Amino acid sequence: MEVIPAAKQALMCFLISNLTFIVCFLTGVLGSSSELWALKYWGPALYFCLINFVLKYCYKGFIYEVSIRATGLGAAMAVGLYLVTFDNGWKVFGLYTVVLTFFHFSEFVAVALSNPKTVTIDSFILNHSVQYAVAAVASWVEWAVEYYFFPDFKTHFWISSLGVVMCIGGELIRKTAMFTAKHNFSHTVEFVKRPEHQLVTHGVYSLCRHPSYVGWFYWSIGTQIILLNPICVVVYALTSWTFFRERVYAEEMTLLGFFGIHYDEYQKKVGTGLPFILGYVPENRRQKIKERHWSY
C-alpha cells in the first residue's frame, strides 16, 4: 500500500470532481433554459457515472477505493457550494454540506500524511458508526421539517456563520493534534502499547490532553449551529459529551498503564480540554461510567 501516492490520488480526484461539478452547477454548461433544465441537474449524475467508469478502468484495489470516495466527496462539496448561492434555507444546508465533506476528506489526507502506517479506507470515517449515521440523518430531518414549516427560521445566516467559525476552529485543533502526535495518533483506543508509542505532551497537547476530541466535540456542535437546528444542537452537545466522557475515561486507563507516573504527572498539569470531563484520575474514579465504554 503506497500511502503518499494514495493521498495525492485522493487530492487529485477530490479537486477534479469538485471543479467539474462546480462548473456544471454554477454555469449551467449543459443548458439552463426551461426546456433543458433537467440536463443541468441530471448532468452531474451522468458525469459521476462517467468518472466512476474511468476510475474503475484505470485503478484497482485500494487506490480505486480511495479515488471513488474522494470523487464522491468532491462532488458533494460542489453541491454544497451550489446551494450556498441560494438566499433561503438551502444556503445553510449548503454550508453544512461543505463543512461535512471537507471534514471527511481532510481526515483521510491527515492520517495518510501524519501516520501512514495506519491509513485505510476507514480513515475517511464515512462508516464511523451506526450512531454517527443516525445522528446525521436526524439533523437532516430536523432541518427539513423546520424549513418546511418555518422557512424564515433558516435564514438567520449570521448565526449560521458562527457555526462555520466553530467548525473551522474545531478542524484546526483536531488536525493540529493529528500532525503533532503523528504515529502516536489513532482513530481507535489501543490496548496494547506499541514499541514506538510515545507520550506526546508538547504543542497543542501542552494545552489539553485530548485536543483531537476537543476539536471534534466543538466541530459536531458547530454543524448543528450551521443548520440552525436548536433541537440537535442540544442533543449533539449532550451525546458528544457523554461519548467523549466515557472514551476519555477508557483511553486514560490504558495510557496510565502504558506510561505510569509520567502520564499521572501529565494529568495533574494539563486538563482534558473538554468541559466538566476529568478523565481517569483518582478524584474521578467513582463516577458512573458504563462498562461498555471499552467497546469504543
Describe the 3D structure.
- The chain has helices at about 5-25, 35-60, 60-85, 90-115, 130-150, 155-180, 210-225, 230-260, 260-270.
- By secondary structure, the chain is mostly helical.
- Helix 6 (about 155-180) runs antiparallel to helix 7.
- It is globular, with a radius of gyration of 21 Å.
- The two termini are about 25 Å apart.
- Keywords: Endoplasmic reticulum, Membrane, Methyltransferase, S-adenosyl-L-methionine, Transferase, Transmembrane, Transmembrane helix.
- It is an enzyme of class 2 (transferase).
- Its EC number is 2.1.1.100.
Mean pLDDT: 87
Termini separation: 27 Å
Sketch the major β-sheet: none
Order of helices and strands: HHHHHHHHH
Helix/strand structural class: mainly alpha
Task: Return Rg in Å.
Answer: 21 Å
| Total number of helices | 9
Number of strands: 0
Helix % is: 55-70%
Basic shape:
globular
Question: Approximately how much beta-strand content do the residues carry?
Answer: under 5%
In the predicted model, the low-confidence regions spanning at least 5 consecutive residues are 29-38, 291-296
